[in-house]
Design a protein that fits this description.
The chain is α/β, with parallel strands linked by helices. The protein has helices at about 25-40, 55-70, 85-90, 95-100, and strands spanning about 1-10, 10-20, 45-55, 75-80. The chain has a four-stranded mixed beta sheet with strand order 1-2-3-4.
Length: about 110
C-alpha cells in the first residue's frame, strides 16, 4: 500500500510517499509525477521518502524514471529523507547519490537508457 500526498509551494512540487513502493504501487508514483510536472510546471520536483518503508527494484526504477522525466522537462529533481531500509537499498544499488544530489544536469545510472 502506498499513499502519496502532493504539496505545491510556488514553483516547487513535493510528493510525500508513505508505505511501500513496489511493483503493485509504482503506477501511482508515475501518475503523481506526471500530474505534478504537467499540471504545475514546477522548477523543482521533490520526492520525500521519509515515510517509505519498502522499495523494491521496480520502485527504484520508478524513482529513476521520475528523475529523468523531470530533467527532460527542464525541472530539477531531488529525492529527500531516505532513511532506514529504503536508504540502505538505494545505497547498495548505487542510486542514492543520483536521486538525492543537488541540482543535476541529468539522471544517469543503473537502468539508464
Amino acid at each position: 500500500m502506498l499513499k502519496i500526498a502532493r504539496r505545491v509551494e510556488g514553483n516547487i512540487v513535493r510528493l510525500t510517499l508513505v508505505g511501500e513502493l513496489d511493483m503493485a504501487t509504482v503506477e501511482m508514483l508515475e501518475a503523481a509525477v506526471d500530474d505534478g510536472l504537467t499540471e504545475y510546471r514546477p522548477h523543482l520536483l521533490i520526492i520525500d521518502l521519509a515515510g517509505l518503508v519498502f522499495c523494491d527494484s521496480s520502485g527504484i526504477r520508478a524513482l529513476l524514471d521520475a528523475c529523468r522525466a523531470a530533467n527532460y522537462r527542464g525541472v530539477t529533481f531531488r529525492a529527500t529523507n531516505a532513511c532506514g531500509m529504503t536508504r540502505r537499498v538505494l545505497q547498495v544499488t548505487g542510486v542514492l547519490d543520483i536521486l538525492t544530489a543537488e541540482p543535476r544536469n541529468g539522471c544517469t545510472g543503473p537502468g539508464s537508457d
